[in-house]
Amino acid sequence: MIDGLVKAGTLREVDLPATPAAPRPDPEFGAIDLTLDQSNASATLMDAIDVGGFSTALIDGVTGSGKTEVYLEAVAEALRRKKQVLVLLPEIALTSQFLERFEQRFGARPGEWHSELAPKARERVWRGVAQGEVRVVVGARSALFLPFPELGLIVVDEEHDLAFKQEDRVTYNARDMAIVRGHISQFPVVLASATPSIESRVNCDNGRYRRVHLPARATGADLPDLQAIDMRRNGPERGRWLAPALIRAMTETLEQGHQSLLFLNRRGFAPLTLCRSCGYRFHCDNCSAWLVEHRFRGTLECHHCGHHQPRPEACPSCGDLDSLTACGPGVERIAEEVTERFPDARAIVLSSDMAGGPARLRKELGYIAEGGVDIVIGTQIVAKGHNFPLMTTVGIVDADLGLDNGDPRATERTFQLLAQVSGRAGRVFGGGRALLQTYMPEHPVMQALVSDDYEAFYAREIAARKKASLPPFSRLAALIVSSPEREEGLQFARALARAAPRDAGVALLGPAEAPLHLIRGRYRFRLLLQSPRDVDLQAYIRDWLAKAEDPKGGVRLTVDVDPQSFL
Q1: 27 and 80 in contact (C-beta within 8 Å)?
Q2: b/e 284-320 (16+ beta carbons within 10 angstroms → b)
Q3: Angle at 367 (CA atoms; ends 361, 371), nearest 5 degrees
Q4: What strands lie across the sheet with 475-483, from one edge to the other?
Q5: 3-state secondary structure of 389
Q6: Do the strands 308-310 and 347-350 form a parallel or antiparallel pair, or are they unpaired?
């Protein structure tokens, strides 16, 4: 019928222009009044854009200091100079709140780039960037590889975050690659964090980066009062996980009509389920890991390979009924205790594996910000950059959790995580407090947080790294061998170690079985290289692998320069 109308001349075909992937932002649209500290900081960044050429600046500001408003002024300056801008965020969950702030400032939303985009939307953004129509992109680490023809500024928010490290397939650190790209194309790069990485702080001390410090909150609100609860003396009763002091603080907060946050970086109900009769422990057949109980779903799950199975009524080993017990708490178990203690409170559990994915998470975060929840129980997904106006009390259920491993960055990462979580309290109106449940109140991390002496922590940690010749005062590279057959992988790893060139400047450790030696049905062995910074470690590795035998059969070899994970 339509073809007939076209032939008759009644209808004619008209090409409609494609809807732009993102409208052009207006740098003059919604400029706000900045504080004196913010104005000085933004002037520093805009000067770097005016001067041109490559430079790196680190915005080091306390939680709530308005780092975003500062670097948005740098974005505006880059737009005035007809440049494209890339803003990297570590988590998709952060994009919703950021997009709203961006629209308030520029009158339009930027282009988005992350794994949740539909293929058609990704194609439109990619083409819009390549043609210069999309002027600002906000995205995850892969946005670095978009074909910007006029890129003039990269901002890396939460620059310390581990999510910027890509560990599957091609390994790279998006923060470091952003700096490399800025150096190659000769434009400024801005890093931002309330708890900068040790590497970035050392680069500031050495003059490679310019440090832009924001010492106070933009609202004028005081920083939260941090207190350590010594669990050895003032812990909860048996079978409970929240100390009396934390319960009292939450009760007062509820009476005031404010919100509380309970943080535990452990998903599910319990990290281990065992049989009281025979001692059987539920483990994953594909990984060297225990199965985590998710009571809300009635399943036991592996957080490494995704294997899941129903939680049985009887022990599969001895057959006893009602003998299975959950060991240790996850966020679901904390939620169960909260429901018992505060039956009238509106509580919600947030974690990265919640049903509905990022879309639901963004919705729930907005609901919290509007005051629709009294108590939030969450994993590290709640620690990153969120602004909850009514949040005044933060309780960290297990402040020691991240310290119990062999990672050389464990102290730094625990400090960053706890500081970021504590910073959710009292961001708008002040009066915030954070309580850290710990069995090690004398630990330097706890002491630095309670005393609010971040500079002392950084000085101590930097000195310890330097004394131990650990990054950033040396270089590390990991070679990971994996194989479906343990002996085959071990033999290849040993042969690889024997083929290593002799170099007095390079120390080779291993091969050693990885702490998680079996993941997704593959056995893993690690070799670790350590060298001074003036050694060309990449050239050493290229020479080594050129002389060594290639992996055969099911054996795989992965090279990870500057490893962030040691599992």
Answers
A1: yes
A2: bebbbbbbbbbbebebbbbbbbebeeebeeebeeeee
A3: 145
A4: 507-519, 522-531, 475-483, 556-561
A5: coil
A6: unpaired
DSSP-assigned letter for residue 308: E
Whether residue 321 is contained in a domain is answered as no
pLDDT reading at 27 higher than 90: yes
Are 233 and 150 contained in the same domain? no
User: How far is 240 from 142, CA to CA, in rounded Å?
Assistant: 43
Preceding peptide of 511 cis, ω within 30°: yes
265/204 Cα distance (integer angstroms) = 30
Cα–Cα distance, 86 to 70 (Å, whole number): 15
CB-based contacts of 201-206 (< 8 A; 24+ apart in sequence): 201/58, 201/60, 201/458, 201/462, 202/462, 202/472, 202/473, 203/56, 203/58, 203/472, 204/58, 204/60, 205/462
Helix (H) or strand (E) holding 509: strand 507-519
Amino acid 385: pLDDT: 66
CATH number of the domain encompassing residue 496: 3.30.70.600
Residue 21 is assigned to a structural domain of this protein: no
For CA atoms 156, 159, 161, 166, give the dihedral sign: positive
Place of tokens 């998709």: 92
Range of the domain at 511: 475-561
Residue-wise burial string across 249-281, b where 16 or more C-beta atoms lie within 10 A, e elsewhere:
bbeebbeeebbbbbbbbbbbbbbebbbeeeebe
How many C-beta atoms lie closer than 10 Å to residue 198's C-beta? Answer: 22
Tell me the Ramachandran region of residue 82: left when phi exceeds 0, alpha when psi lies from -120 to 50, beta otherwise.
Answer: left
pLDDT tens-digit profile of 119-174? 898 999 999 999 999 999 999 999 999 999 999 999 999 999 999 999 887 889 99
- Does residue 375 share a domain with residue 482? no
Separation between Cα atoms, residue 369 and residue 290, nearest integer Å: 35
Q: Which residues of 486-498 are buried (b: 16+ CB within 10 A; e: fewer)?
A: eebbbbbbeebbe
Strand pairing partners for 166?
172
Residues contacting residue 183 through CB under 8 Å, at least 6 positions apart: 54
Q: Is residue 355 part of a domain?
A: yes
Q: Are residues 63 and 193 in the same domain?
A: yes
d(CA 137, CA 178): 14
According to DSSP, the β-strands at 172-173 and 136-139 are unpaired
Is residue 97 located within the same domain as residue 159? yes
Average pLDDT of the chain, as a whole number: 90
Closest by CA to 146, choosing from 100, 114, 186, 180, is 114
Q: What does the longest C-alpha to C-alpha distance in the chain come to?
A: 90
Report which DSSP code applies to 142. G
Same domain for 231 and 133:
no
Given 443, 463, 483, which residue is the final one in a domain? 463
pTM reported for the whole predicted model: 0.89
Residue 69 forms beta bridges with which residues? Answer: none
Specify the pLDDT at position 17: 63
